[in-house]
Design a protein that fits this description.
Blueprint lengths: L5 H7 L7 H30 L10 E7 L1 E5 L2 E16 L6 E6 L6 E2 L4 E6 L1 H37 L4 H33 L2 E3 L4 E6 L6 E2 L6 E16 L11 E6 L4 E6 L2 E6 L5 E9 L9 E8 L4 E7 L4 E3 L2 E8 L2 E8 L2 E3 L2 E4 L9 E5 L10 E5 L8 H14 L1
Parallel strand pairs: 1-23
Antiparallel strand pairs: 1-22, 2-16, 3-10, 3-15, 4-6, 4-9, 5-8, 6-7, 8-10, 10-14, 11-12, 11-15, 13-14, 16-21, 17-18, 18-19, 18-22, 20-21
Helix pairs in contact: 3-4
């Protein structure tokens, strides 16, 4: 057999057709078509989401509430302090000493005469013992001298002693008696110093302060423990002198306890007969029963005093208006159009503003939400809000009374 060389093998093999030259253009064409279809779909989707209507011409969503007809009575509010009926700052009055024990802490209930703290008064006790012994010695000498004076006076009648000698003995007895009285007074003062070393509760109450601990050094007049009596709480406040006639004793008021958000119907108990010369204010007080001790003292309180006569009015929530002095700006809705209005108020009570009914008719629809984006004449899409409670003085007092009765 004839051996084939590489050259003869290449000459006898068939030549392959270049098929890949058609595949590449087809794939590229399909890719271009796909990109064009996807781009067209995206453009169509974007065009479908575009709002063709101008925002300024579309109604603006708002929440409205109908203005209510309510009697208005002016309420004066005075800020004051809730004070305990009595309070005391317990501390030494006569001695300076180190604190030995403190037996109570804030919140503890104490009885009158209960020991609150003790001082280290060994020096005062020793001094008192010395004074007591000296007084006993003087008393013994005074007894002996008084007997001698009696015997001397008996001898004077028989002429056995001279009148001068009798007078000397009698004067000596009187001097010794005076010295004994002075020593007894010194002993009484020293006994007060010793008793001052045991600090006791001056009345039934509660511990409000603990200002020292054992080991501290205290001086006369220093404060160690505070005690308060909260069975009755005094609401104290001051009113301008022009309101003197508005706060006579017996006036029905409402006391708002800021710390506990509690409203208490009460009556003004007492009123000062004169104004403070510096502030020109009238001091008045209200006694509140606190036998269950639920009112914290030395906290802020508000006194709401209704004045004048109740007048017909239209009430609007304070959150729906913008106040500028006595003028209130709001938006009312007539049909589907909002109108800006600026009115002069009658007054404010709680969270409501009151207007004369001839200025703002009851039933007018007031924008309570969404008014920050409104302008006069804008079209609106109104949704009615839930009615809010009114805040007239009469309703506040009656509602508080009902609440206290239910509790």
């Amino acid at each position: 057999m004839q051996e084939q060389t590489p050259e003869t093998r290449v000459a006898h093999e068939p030549i392959a057709e270049p098929q890949s030259r058609y595949r590449i253009p087809i794939i590229a064409s399909l890719g271009v078509i796909g990109v064009l279809v996807l781009g067209g779909a995206l453009v169509w989707h974007a065009e479908g989401k575009t709002n063709k209507v101008a925002l300024a011409s579309s109604p603006k969503p708002v929440t409205v509430l109908a203005a209510k007809s309510e009697a208005y009575r002016a309420v004066h509010t005075y800020v004051g302090t809730l004070r305990p009926w009595i309070e005391a700052k317990v501390g030494p009055q006569f001695v300076a000493a180190y604190v030995e024990t403190v037996l109570v802490r804030p919140g503890a209930t104490v009885r009158k005469g209960q020991v609150l703290a003790t001082l280290d008064c060994r020096n005062a006790s020793a001094e008192t013992a010395a004074i007591s012994a000296t007084a006993k010695a003087i008393a013994a000498r005074q007894v002996a001298i008084s007997h001698e004076a009696a015997r001397t006076r008996a001898l004077l009648d028989g002429g056995f002693v001279s009148p001068n000698e009798a007078e000397q003995i009698t004067a000596k007895s009187a001097a010794q008696e005076a010295e004994l009285a002075a020593q007894e007074a010194t002993f009484a003062k020293s006994a007060l110093d010793v008793s001052d070393c045991v600090l006791r509760a001056p009345f039934d109450g509660e511990v409000s302060l603990r200002l020292v601990d054992p080991g501290a050094f205290v001086r006369p007049g220093g404060e160690m423990i505070g005690v308060v009596d909260r069975n009755t709480v005094r609401m104290t406040a001051d009113a301008p002198e022009g309101d003197f006639d508005a706060i006579p004793p017996g006036t029905k008021v409402t006391v708002h306890v800021v710390s506990t958000r509690l409203d208490i119907p009460a009556t003004i108990t007492r009123r000062a007969p004169s104004a403070d010369p510096g502030t020109r204010t009238i001091h008045f007080e209200i006694d509140l029963d606190d036998s269950d001790r639920h009112i914290p003292v030395d906290t802020t309180g508000e006194v709401h005093v209704p004045v004048g006569q109740a007048l017909p009015a239209t009430t609007v929530p304070l959150s729906a208006v913008t106040m500028n002095d006595k003028k209130a700006t709001m938006f009312t809705v007539d049909g589907d159009v909002a109108h800006a209005r600026t009115l002069v108020e009658m007054g404010e009570v709680a969270a409501n503003v009151f207007f004369p009914p001839d200025v703002l008719a009851p039933g007018s629809m007031i924008v309570v939400e969404g008014r920050s984006l409104l302008k006069d004449g804008d079209r609106v899409l109104a949704k009615t809000a839930h009615a809010e409670p009114t805040g007239s003085a009469s309703n506040v007092v009656q509602g508080t009374a009902a609440k206290e009765k239910s509790q």
